[in-house]
Amino acid sequence: MSTMDMTGDGLGQRATARVVLISAAAALGGFLFGFDTAVINGAVDAVRGGFALDAAQIGFAVSCALLGSALGAWYAGMLANRFGRVRTMQVAAVLLVASALGSGLVTAVWDLILWRLVGGIGVGVASVIAPTYIAEVSPAHIRGRLGSMQQLAIVLGIFAALLSDAWLAGVAGGAAQPLWFGLAAWRWMFLVATLPALVYGTLVLGVPESPRHLVAKGRLDEARVVLRKVLNMHSETALDNKLRDIEDSLRSEHRPRLRDLCGKTAGLLPVVWIGILLSVFQQFVGINVIFYYSSTLWHSVGFSEADSFTITVVTSIVNVLVTLVAIALVDKIGRKPLLVVGSAGMAITLGLMAWCFSQATGSGATLSLPGATGMVALVAANAYVVFFGVSWGPVVWVLLGEMFPNRIRATALAVAAAAQWLANFAITSTFPALAELGLSFAYGLYAGFALLSLLFVLAGVRETKGIELEDMRA
């Protein structure tokens, strides 16, 4: 197998084409993560009108998948430790296929909520397993770049969902209008998610199990084969040393449990609290408001439905491009500097958005931004996405995949990811009500959280660039 990067890490490891490909296959779960959570964007107004929902009801219908994601993330670590990373990814694919079909064929809002919950569980599982798996098969010197593939897949999934939403609504003449076989366009927005879910399920059938999981299960010969193939390690001495390092890091606990996360700092190990707070702040800065409600938001301040869809797609393209920038930078300048820059930038741009919406006139369907204020808000919103996409978007997933010691990694990541989904639910479900109070208040609140995230990074986050997983400490 040809090498993608002939620069090793001093331990006989090389970044082969194989490790890049299997990391990409695992990261496809992130694509489904982004697609499944963002696809509701184009359907919000049609679902609200079709089922006659108020602000609280549509907020729950949009965000209920996130409760399922929290549940899936919570149990993903336990499933991964018992059955393996690959088998758990296959379970996630099955749940996502079922959700896509069910959501597109619903007859009432209650079964939409049910199928969104099912899909949410699949997304939650994928959100935990992909970064764990990628971190465990990657050489340390490019682990940040490969780990960032998760976020790249997420933003590509968001882009694909918003683009397909816009295209389907355009073909039908509106999200609520009938399309093929008499089904409304918003139903097809959900149904098309079956295709990437089937592709994901097929691809993960061909990826090897994580060597660290194999060692934990005592399957040393299989772990040796995976390390030799994936990391191009042909030196028996290097293989023996790597297996010994993994065994040493796992020896203290062969069957991870939630109680392994307990510590003296408010009941949890400090590194677990840092992971939880990274997850919470990633959501409390309000990023998913942009991707779940942006079409409705821009429509509400004077843009046409078609223009609102276009703006949303452009924003998602910006997100993809800056994620590529983050991938190029994360192993060069480190995780912490990117988070610092991102927090500061988000605080400023969110504050500018809050000011813009404080200038709005009218209310409800008649709300509008005067003069050039609408364009300033649009530029600020995209600048905010730039700062998030180059920092907190990819870097948090990189850190969550690598920052925990081997013996607690899957379990600790599950807890942190569950906290992330609950935070996502809190932000997403409350936005419609906050928007009715005032968009200026909502974005001012998110700006405050961005400022707090800056203080948290400066005080509590430590750099993990170039550190072997076996050397991570609690």
From TrEMBL:
<feature type="transmembrane region" description="Helical">
    <location>
        <begin position="267"/>
        <end position="291"/>
    </location>
</feature>
<dbReference type="InterPro" id="IPR047984">
    <property type="entry name" value="XylE-like"/>
</dbReference>
<dbReference type="GO" id="GO:0005886">
    <property type="term" value="C:plasma membrane"/>
</dbReference>
<dbReference type="InterPro" id="IPR003663">
    <property type="entry name" value="Sugar/inositol_transpt"/>
</dbReference>
<feature type="transmembrane region" description="Helical">
    <location>
        <begin position="113"/>
        <end position="134"/>
    </location>
</feature>
<feature type="transmembrane region" description="Helical">
    <location>
        <begin position="154"/>
        <end position="176"/>
    </location>
</feature>
<keyword id="KW-0813">Transport</keyword>
<keyword id="KW-0812">Transmembrane</keyword>
<dbReference type="InterPro" id="IPR005829">
    <property type="entry name" value="Sugar_transporter_CS"/>
</dbReference>
<dbReference type="InterPro" id="IPR050814">
    <property type="entry name" value="Myo-inositol_Transporter"/>
</dbReference>
<feature type="transmembrane region" description="Helical">
    <location>
        <begin position="88"/>
        <end position="107"/>
    </location>
</feature>
<feature type="transmembrane region" description="Helical">
    <location>
        <begin position="55"/>
        <end position="76"/>
    </location>
</feature>
<feature type="transmembrane region" description="Helical">
    <location>
        <begin position="337"/>
        <end position="355"/>
    </location>
</feature>
<feature type="transmembrane region" description="Helical">
    <location>
        <begin position="188"/>
        <end position="207"/>
    </location>
</feature>
<comment type="similarity">
    <text>Belongs to the major facilitator superfamily. Sugar transporter (TC 2.A.1.1) family.</text>
</comment>
<protein>
    <recommendedName>
        <fullName>D-xylose-proton symporter</fullName>
    </recommendedName>
</protein>
<feature type="transmembrane region" description="Helical">
    <location>
        <begin position="441"/>
        <end position="461"/>
    </location>
</feature>
<dbReference type="InterPro" id="IPR036259">
    <property type="entry name" value="MFS_trans_sf"/>
</dbReference>
<dbReference type="GO" id="GO:0022857">
    <property type="term" value="F:transmembrane transporter activity"/>
</dbReference>
<dbReference type="InterPro" id="IPR020846">
    <property type="entry name" value="MFS_dom"/>
</dbReference>
<keyword id="KW-1133">Transmembrane helix</keyword>
<dbReference type="InterPro" id="IPR005828">
    <property type="entry name" value="MFS_sugar_transport-like"/>
</dbReference>
<feature type="transmembrane region" description="Helical">
    <location>
        <begin position="15"/>
        <end position="35"/>
    </location>
</feature>
<feature type="transmembrane region" description="Helical">
    <location>
        <begin position="311"/>
        <end position="330"/>
    </location>
</feature>
<keyword id="KW-0472">Membrane</keyword>
<feature type="transmembrane region" description="Helical">
    <location>
        <begin position="412"/>
        <end position="435"/>
    </location>
</feature>
<feature type="domain" description="Major facilitator superfamily (MFS) profile">
    <location>
        <begin position="22"/>
        <end position="465"/>
    </location>
</feature>
<keyword id="KW-0762">Sugar transport</keyword>
<dbReference type="Pfam" id="PF00083">
    <property type="entry name" value="Sugar_tr"/>
</dbReference>
<keyword id="KW-1003">Cell membrane</keyword>
<feature type="transmembrane region" description="Helical">
    <location>
        <begin position="375"/>
        <end position="400"/>
    </location>
</feature>
